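PROTOCOL LOG
Step 1. Enter all chains and additional molecules of the complex.
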Amino acid sequence: MARDGVDLLLLTTEADIRWFSGFLTAFWQSPTRPWFLLVPAGGLPIAVIPTIGETCMARTWVRDIRTWSSPDLVDDGVGLLVETIREIAGRGVMSGNVGSVRIGVPMGAGTHVRMPLAELERLRAALPGGEWRDASPTLNALRAIKSEREIAKIRHVCLAASRAFAALPDIVAAGMRDIEAFRAFTIRCLEEGVDDVAYLVGAAGRGGYDDIISPPSGRALAAGDVLILDTGCMHDGYFCDFDRNWAIGAVDAAAHDAYRVAWEATEAGLAAARPGVRCDELFATMDRVMAPHAIDASGGVGRSGHGLGMQLTEPPSLMAGERTALRPGMVMTLEPGFAFAPGKVMVHEENIVITEDGCELLSERAAPELPVIGV
Amino acid sequence: MARDGVDLLLLTTEADIRWFSGFLTAFWQSPTRPWFLLVPAGGLPIAVIPTIGETCMARTWVRDIRTWSSPDLVDDGVGLLVETIREIAGRGVMSGNVGSVRIGVPMGAGTHVRMPLAELERLRAALPGGEWRDASPTLNALRAIKSEREIAKIRHVCLAASRAFAALPDIVAAGMRDIEAFRAFTIRCLEEGVDDVAYLVGAAGRGGYDDIISPPSGRALAAGDVLILDTGCMHDGYFCDFDRNWAIGAVDAAAHDAYRVAWEATEAGLAAARPGVRCDELFATMDRVMAPHAIDASGGVGRSGHGLGMQLTEPPSLMAGERTALRPGMVMTLEPGFAFAPGKVMVHEENIVITEDGCELLSERAAPELPVIGV
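Step 2. Run joint prediction.
Step 3. Record the structure below.
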């Protein structure tokens, strides 16, 4: 923070606040109340939060917890926040005085400020000499490197989801509506020990699927379909994020071929991923395998993988132009995908952690040939 | 919009975009990409979205869909957004020209702008004469009144969750760890037909619970505990939000008494909720029942209910000072709670819809006496 010229960080989102504090709760689902964590340079974090969160925050390592009864129609926390920022500035841990306090807020790709815009403007007006700086580069660099304990949590949820995927041929069959297949898979993930199936998308289509982010349609799975499920299950606040494909009975050879290409692209990615390799290089490595077979590279996803942790998708992206180099402790998805025919996409995904000299799979490796669910 | 002096709405969040478009996807879990919906006064909505969402958006009633390949390290959508806003302004559906375009963005309580702050500032700079106005009052008024089809979806998920709650004594017992009770309840909700258990919190403590938003601790349920579970399950993109309490075997009489008080407070709320009654009046009605028994009203929650729909919690709040009047079609929670002893809170919750002459329960009414799970 000193190097970046930031006197304090102002954090407002679930992942940023949890990363510094350990504050874990499902209550973020409610958009009603703002939550704030202040991280002073050279000082301990201060939580400025609604009263309803006081007990939960007190279970973390944060000792300085300031609360207000929220919702408050007149001042929903900004007054207390301003007062706290001024107090921090007055301690002399800052480079300057209140008038020139330099406040780091994540402003870069993939971020947002989780407070009402009118309140953010009120906050800025109350700190007229404040300098607002983008804390995204600092936070991205910090959060990208996972500790052994973080990696263990991600490994745990990857393995539980892997077991659920392995069981899929036993719980899904032709004739089952896609929404029922989603439900059966979700239940199996819970039975395998995940805390929550926070993300599940998928698709099925004759000879291949197109759009994988639409919700299930109610259509029945049929012989000849290619089915994909892509899940972000959670354990103790950490995500996995990977997918699996299946053939329902006999499917077109083109789908089998496309599966093999995506599997080989993933193999190339696994072989190449190591410290020092840049994200654009790893992207290119996988892309080279798919390009001869693709009518459209990346399958509309725009990238071939990304960071993974407290969020389903984190920086950096594996894509052209992204020059961030891999470092040990980064947890990443490898997610090569391509359109192999008009309206037909094949996407594979695995989760890995970068080690000192390569990478290690966290998910159980997908089968090299498209698995078939009997009909 | 004409009345409010707004030429177009700029929407960035899941619920706002879905309310106007019908765009339903789990993909919002990924924070990587921004999504935009523009709603011109007198014109049809225009989606400005990442390519990955094009097929899903094309299934909605939105016909004008503009996409860019996201993520894009140089321009992640703002260029296309600016171009589209300028085009709308040029159509002459606006009151003025591009230089004075009046852009409505939700800025009020419970909202945020879901795009990077740096990009929002770039957008503002690209529209130098733009007037930015708070669209929250308009959107809150629109979204608060649910259609019959919306009410049917919420009723469906309320009844499924009611059946899961009713089954709890059969699936939970003393000796079971709280995290396993959460998991068993989640699975039961799915078996009863919900699409997703997007929100589940709860607590158990000897003679009463304190903090209901912390995650399960791993502690085993024991005779003498009061257990609460509070869930926001989903069906077709709509939430329920209510809780239930149980005694594990014999518990202190104080907990039974507190349960009865909260139940009577809910009864008073059910009897009072009708069109024309203000939120602060309904709050006071429930508060009067609890006040003689409370060492701390509202149990730290800060209110006794709220709107419900595409979000777990929506405006308006049932609280002092909230003068919004109930109207037919509003779906609300009644959520009276109070501390009946130091560190012991009792919270009840039901979901209702305001009708022409009163209200109708959407959740199955809780039992008038604290249900006991045998040990």
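Step 4. Note key features.
The CA atoms of residues 75 and 119 of chain B lie 9 Å apart.
The domain at 145-373 of chain B is CATH 3.90.230.10 (Creatine Amidinohydrolase).
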